[in-house]
Each structure stands twice: as structure tokens, then as C-alpha cells.
Amino acid sequence: MTRIAAVHGALAPHRHAQAEITDIVARTCLPPSADRRVLDRLHQGSRVRSRHMTLPLDRYAELDGFGAANDAFIAGATALGSQVIRGALRTAGLTPSDVDLLMFTSVTGIATPSIDARLVGRLGLREDVKRMPLFGLGCVGGAAGLARVHDYLLGRPDHVAVLLSVELCSLTFQRDDDSPANLVASALFGDGAAAVVVCGAARAAEPSAGAPAPSGPTIVATRSRLYPDTGHVMGWNITDSGFRVVLDPAVPDVVRRYLADDVKGFLSEHGLKPKDVATWVCHPGGPRVLEAVAESLELREDALDVTWRHLADVGNLSSASVLHVLRDTWAERRPPAGAPGLLLAMGPGFCCELVLLRW
Fold first, then answer.
1. Residue 326 has pLDDT above 90, yes or no
2. Which residues are identified as catalytic?
């Protein structure tokens, strides 16, 4: 087993109430004579109260294409990424030179050299640090990244790995697009980042001098699941203006069809049932998705409280969200030692990633 030593999250600098964002979307997406009541209902029904943005709201109109938006992504991702990695290493009692693997996931911008490469010198990571940039995983990226870090550390138990997620969703917003998918996305997504420090079993058992022993949950096992004939329900269409969201209303139906069997089958391999899970660390995909998760797994009423609160406070941060929920669960709702937890997220593919934790 591997052990999570620290989770650190941060949000983009500009916070706005949902109503402010709704007004901007109405002005930039809807035709002048359009009735905005549908937009208002979508934004109010999202159960999001506020979100954080990389740029001030009035700056988004100045982005004159994909290149300008992507330049803003590189600058913002580098700044937020360095902030959360420093915070996570500080909490873990480790230094940049202790890091053996840096894994980076995002789906809201592209860069070559990748963001992780740009952070090596800035943070003082070793020149021989292994890097693994991941693109295209979307909302599942935080859970999948944590699972792949675990896979790596099983083979290198004396290593330390850092998973970095930075998602600047506001930079993908498409002006002059009044499609249902774009309007729904404009109601949900915000900007933020998270970093997780994970130690292999040997490193966790023998921390470096002066560093505290990792106190977070262990990762027991992981499970990946790609659902057939569902590639059309979520993703991007890449256009001259950037990333245009693909978001099919059928997503909650896919969750209801597949998730329960996957979760129950995975847990049963470890002698567990859903009722045995003490903490559900779930990605906040949106109200209808969360309702489908709770319904299909027959969860108790308060099981997803941390996730619902995260959605209300900052919206959906794509791959970073489930890591923020993990941080808050650790800080506020940590169960007794030895209790099982399940971290889960879903994303483009359509797919699901499950990570079994032991607190």
C-alpha cells in the first residue's frame, strides 16, 4: 500500500457570485432579443453560489482566440501549480529534492514544454525527476492520477510522488455560443488547483530525518472502468476558438446504469459493501450526477455533504475537485483509524475511476 502524506488546494484569485457570472454569460452568449429565463434557471439549478476565475470578468472579452486563452492558461497554471506543490510539500515535511515523480493532469489548456517541465526549475526539483503529463482525462483526472501514482509507487516503494492538477475552466468558455452544453458548463465550472504528495510503502515507514510520518490514508487498490458506446456523452470539440464542451444530458443515466455494479464488485473483492464505506470522496459533477450517484449506491443522506458543499462554494473544478474534497474530508470528517473510504470520479470516455482508501 502507498500512503497519502498531504493534500493542498488553491483557487484562482478572482471570486464572483453566481449571479455576476450569469449576467456576463447572458451578455456574451445570448442573442440581444433572447429570453434569458432558461439561462437563469440553469444557473440557479446548478446549486453553485460562487466561483473563482483566473482573470477578472471583464478581461475575458479581450481574449481574441484560442492562442490568447491558452497563453493565460500557461501563466495561470504555472503560478497556481507552484503554489499548491509548495504547500503540499511543506505540509508533508518534505523538500522539492525529495520528489521522484511529478505527475500533472489538466484538460483546460496545453503546453509544450508541459506545465510540469516548467515547474522543475521554478520549484527546485531535481533534474532527474520523472515527469508524466496527462491530458484528456477531464473530471476523472484527479482520481485517475492518484491511481496511476499508486501504480508507480507499488514498483518503487522508496519513492515520493506528487500529483498536480490545475484546471482553469473559465478559459475554455465559448462566447456567442448559446448551445445547451455551453450554458450548462457556464453554470458549473470554476478554476482551481490541487497537489497531493504520496509516499511509497517503504518511504512512508521510514520518513526522512525531520519529516513527520505520513498521517493520511493509505491507498489499498484502484479500479478503472471504460463504458462501451459512451464516448459521445462528454468531452471537447476542438475548434478555431478553442475547446467547445460536449455534455450530453444522458450522463446521469450512464451513472445509474453502470456505477453501482462497478462499485459493489470492486468493494466485494476486498470484503466490503457500500454500507461499510465510512467516507465517500466523490467528484462534484453537478446536481443531477450527484443525485444519480447517491441513488444508485443507496447512500445515506449525509454521505456526500462535503461534495455538495464544495460544489456550492466553488463549483466544479474538473480534475482538481475530487482532490479538494479529499483535503476537506481529511480535515473535517476523518473517520476512525482503519475505516475504509472510497474516492471516485467520472469523466470523458465515458469512464469511472475508483480508489479504495484505508484511513
1. yes
2. 139
